[in-house]
Amino acid sequence: MNVAIIVAAGQGARMGGGRAKQFLELAGVPVIVHSLRRFEQCATIAACIVVLPATETSSFLTIAEQYKLRKLTRIVAGGTTRTESVARGLQAVQAATAGIIAVHDGVRPFVTPAEIDQTVRAADASGAAVLVAPVVDTIKEIHGEQITRTLPREQMRRALTPQCFHYDLLCRAYERARAHKLEATDCSALVEQLGVCITAVAGDPRNIKLTRPEDLALAEIMIREFKV
Description:
The protein has 228 residues and is of the alpha/beta class. It is built from seven helices and eleven strands.
């Protein structure tokens, strides 16, 4: 069984305000519900596990019922870091039936069901797959305040989510991270350290992560104008 782990345990300090960003409303609906609805529409995902701040786990049951989130099977309290939160979500997966694990940021509401399905299928074939988007800016490497070199943009990609892996492979990566006290901003960084090749799946640049107030304003425009 393929399972999505929706990571939404952050407090959203950069967004400002008194409410965590995953619960802010976008077109009248909580951002995290938009994200979960995308997985509800996927043929390749059978169940969703949501990782939330410990203070939000009980109240989210009401939200799940209100919006009829049929694939939601577990709500898990997250940790103090993203790595710990994903690990806790992974612990909630039933190992005996686990297939592909799709890890997705709860504040990326514009991923499409087709992108999710494509990334899951790529991981099923190769073991690991990550949704990516082109880089449009020129990328500079710096040391202190000095530019040291310009990186070849045509070889650069922005890592999006979902990031999909065979269950056993992802468990190995997180066991190693725990043993060596490693932290990473995405799952693929930990899987890469196992020496595993990861398939890049072309994604839409509109699959943005809502981090700052201007992101939420842009998201409102995207929903209204582009019907994404």
